[in-house]
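dumping this here before i forget
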Amino acid sequence: MRNREKILVSGGGLAGLIAAVAFGDSGYEVLCIDPTDENKFKKVDLRTTAYLQPSQLFLQKIGVWPLVQHSSTPLEIMRIADIAGEKLTVKDFNSSDISDAPFGWNVRNLDMREGLLARIKALPNVVFETGLSTASTTSRSTMARVTLSNRRIIDCKLLIAADGRDSPIREQAGVAMKRTEFDQSALSFSVTHELPHNNISTEVHKVGGPFTLVPLPDFEGKPSSAVVWMDKTEDINNIKTLSPTAFNAAITQRSGAVLGKLTSVTNCAKWPIISQLADHFFAERTAFIAETAHVVPPIGAQGLNLSIGDIETLLKLAKSSSDDIGSLTVLKKYHKIRRPIAQSRVIGVGLLNRASKADGPIAARARALGLNAIHNIKPLRHALMQLGIGLR
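structure:
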């Protein structure tokens, strides 16, 4: 039997679009809105995302993965290199140790967005509109009434807030959040390189934060990777002012030349590194997902994968509620399941980030010892690998 309930998703980033597709695929009537004009998205998002095994399975289930699989790159080995100490420390973590499948698959955000929009077009019960945001919301026990920026009024059974880390919906609901700043920023861009990546995702650690190279398909006949470079905000600001030649020299040096000479082939996107956790993942008739609920530093591909877990859990609870998908019972269960998971990721990734950017010889030796211990103790290595990709 098909469900016909009105759901409003506020926020048309990747998480919001995935939520719209997921609920639409299950038969719910969905309206998804975003304030950004669609033509501007291609100029905004230069990043890529690694979709770990559970996320890939969910995207397969809702009909999205077949639309992006051709542009994905499997991540079969995670390589961690530390170049801050007296000598280079390199350890490989192979997905074959714990699974027959890769750890995950890397996809450009623009490719995923195109796949999601194509899936939405194929769902007659899902509508996506850009140039619109939520101006105000009021709720009662039976529905939420949302006034849009064009003064249109939407009555819905469930409002899904995917409107970002500075969410107006969360703020209007009076839900507080805890924010931690790390005095770091990240640069995201793509490069070509001399050596093949062999489907190995490499994190190069040094004082200030990790420099991560994630495999992409070849670009103009050359091996290519996506880069996320985390460092002190002051240093990142200085790096952005470099000439193209100096920038390529700087990124090659920072990478330890693990893939040979690097050449940037895109512009850079920059954003501040923070962690954030909402006190509650719901308000009356409203569920908070993705960065509205939690923000983690870009380490270990936890961000969007954590958000997809939110969506999958919320959908399961909605489908199991025969009477009301946006009831307080459903939303309290969602909060009870997802917030402890998000809290553990926020704390864990925050600690990893602090350890990664710590300065001095003692910190460098501690990182090397810790990396050796994790790699050499097989049960510990397997447990952490399974935890990292969401199999535990």
